[in-house]
């Protein structure tokens, strides 16, 4: 039987499906994006002294970006210019040009948009947000398995999927079920907390499937961040050790129960108090690991029968995705195998759009 801690490292064996992501408000987003512009060296061009920015103003587009996302680099309101804000505008302009160029190419099958990360270079985005790593033990155990994956790509899928629907998503659960998928989260800047959100959400979703008819109840990410010493809070963690902690702890608290004892709006707050007196609502009956070589069918069956599945992905360019389908040509192999995994997500279903098949993971970067 599948557990609420079902995990999968990859879901592209046999090359029959693209990778997608769920976000808010758009229902489908790509997970593994086209490698795009490098503007990490923009700071090298900023040679003026801070005082030389007196009287300078920002462009209208950047002013709108700062107002929309509450950015205030220099203090005193977003209209003030200083060295930091001028550098961020320079990076913003490079990203704006790249997004416009991408969207102007009719050959691209997906669109990009400027997100709240538009003031970050690609290198900065990776450093600040994509530091999730799978456990060392799992990396070692998967080395031989990874080496066999290239031979499987493009091969005939193992087993027919005729008994499975062309489209399925727990965001629109079958008759008789309540809500199964938690709301899309928005993890903090400069906090690699995706592991905690995915671990908590997979527990919540699995129990919503088990208790057919009941709506999903969010579990406490804050408790994982504060109490799970197997993992490292904002300095990343992984779902394997988080599930182990939940089991050894005797369960985990709901978000509402933990927040009553440990107030605070931010869930991924590693400085929050670890309160061991909070009522533990749910535990995990165990965990099973989906092999990369098992192919698409194994993941599809696990999702449909057990609920959303925790996955590790390479998301180096998740900065500006907007809509459409990312195909394999736009998301080449990362080259470092299992070591290329740098983000955790929860895959909630799959689908097909004009003949193109895709997976539907949920990310933790909000809308």
Automatic annotation (TrEMBL):
<dbReference type="InterPro" id="IPR000668">
    <property type="entry name" value="Peptidase_C1A_C"/>
</dbReference>
<keyword id="KW-0732">Signal</keyword>
<dbReference type="Pfam" id="PF08246">
    <property type="entry name" value="Inhibitor_I29"/>
</dbReference>
<dbReference type="GO" id="GO:0006508">
    <property type="term" value="P:proteolysis"/>
</dbReference>
<dbReference type="GO" id="GO:0008234">
    <property type="term" value="F:cysteine-type peptidase activity"/>
</dbReference>
<dbReference type="InterPro" id="IPR038765">
    <property type="entry name" value="Papain-like_cys_pep_sf"/>
</dbReference>
<feature type="domain" description="Peptidase C1A papain C-terminal">
    <location>
        <begin position="164"/>
        <end position="367"/>
    </location>
</feature>
<dbReference type="Pfam" id="PF00112">
    <property type="entry name" value="Peptidase_C1"/>
</dbReference>
<comment type="similarity">
    <text>Belongs to the peptidase C1 family.</text>
</comment>
<dbReference type="InterPro" id="IPR013201">
    <property type="entry name" value="Prot_inhib_I29"/>
</dbReference>
<dbReference type="InterPro" id="IPR013128">
    <property type="entry name" value="Peptidase_C1A"/>
</dbReference>
<feature type="signal peptide">
    <location>
        <begin position="1"/>
        <end position="42"/>
    </location>
</feature>
<feature type="domain" description="Cathepsin propeptide inhibitor">
    <location>
        <begin position="62"/>
        <end position="125"/>
    </location>
</feature>
<protein>
    <recommendedName>
        <fullName>Peptidase C1A papain C-terminal domain-containing protein</fullName>
    </recommendedName>
</protein>
<dbReference type="InterPro" id="IPR039417">
    <property type="entry name" value="Peptidase_C1A_papain-like"/>
</dbReference>
